[in-house]
Amino acid sequence: MIVNFISKEQWKNISPYFHGMIFSNKEFSEIENIDFACSLVDGESTLGYCTFRILDKTHVYMQYGGAIDKGLFINLKAYTTLIEALKKEYLYITTLIKNDNFTMLKMAMKAGFKIVGIRIIKNEIYLEHSIEVNHGL
Fold it and tell me: The whole model's pTM is what?
């Protein structure tokens, strides 16, 4: 399984495809503001993607993403592969997950995220998750 890092400029060209496939909303790509994206590939199959905002040189925020349905085990493997790649670059990884997205909540916990807060956005509840990476410090 390979994590491909995609620049902001490259992402602009392919984001309508990914957002359309996952969220059925190609227009979403016109309003997003990202610093980079990643796609996860296994052989010839793209398993999913995620977009990111760099908060500072040690901290990245996982913004939007989705899995192309290959089953929970493959999606968990792809998600943990992505997290491991990010851990090599950042000390802190954070994300928000809607409180009723049980599949994502389970995957985040299995990947090592801890719940560190709650946010209410447009009357919906999101759980804030974070991983703090110890690079031998």
Answer: 0.84
